[in-house]
Design brief:
47% helix, five-stranded antiparallel β-sheet, Alpha-Beta Plaits
Length: 227
Amino acid sequence: MSYNQDLVREFLLTLIHNYVPDGTEELSERETLLLSNFLFQPEVPIEIKQRVIILMSHLDSVTAFREMEKYAENPDDGLQLWANTALEECRMFMEMSLSEDVEGGEEVGVFMGGGLGGHKNSMRCYFMVLPMPGNEMTDELNALIEVSLKQTGKEIRVVVEDFFYSKNHLGFTALIPFDVAIAEFMETSIERCGAAGAQVYPHYYACNGEMPDEAEIPEIISTIMES
């Protein structure tokens, strides 16, 4: 397939003109997919792909995040750094969006990565919750947290999957629908834990990337506790 570079540039300029960075207007899902399609076509010049990457990096949408994540796995020669940087910016915008408190607009303690995948219209995330400082996880506390998570998940279409137990945290995976904020799921679950007598630290860790290994966990816990 051949590309008319002038038409491609005109298309990009139209998107850039229509995109307002203050959030009052954003690209539709269809426009985002049309834009990202240029990244996966070998005939498209590197110059055009660089412009596409710059624009994609500033889009606050799951579609943009997923498309950049896909491209970053196998970018064109010379664009690995561009792709990685854009993916991190997409992740930053997604983190800010997903961590917004639905009721008060406050930022909560959520830290997000990328790469675990998902299912249909959901994003698979790994979470880590902690006991209050000076305490350890117990069988009773784990059970209360699990019940709270599953009850909240049932109400808002979140599928809680597997649990991973430790003395200083409880890890688990869950499928989060794209139209459900991580904060809504976690804040409601933590409040429910408190009502049931389970003392859980209010900040938590959320990651759509690879699950942390044992060596990474102490640093993650330290970051959560300092938030």
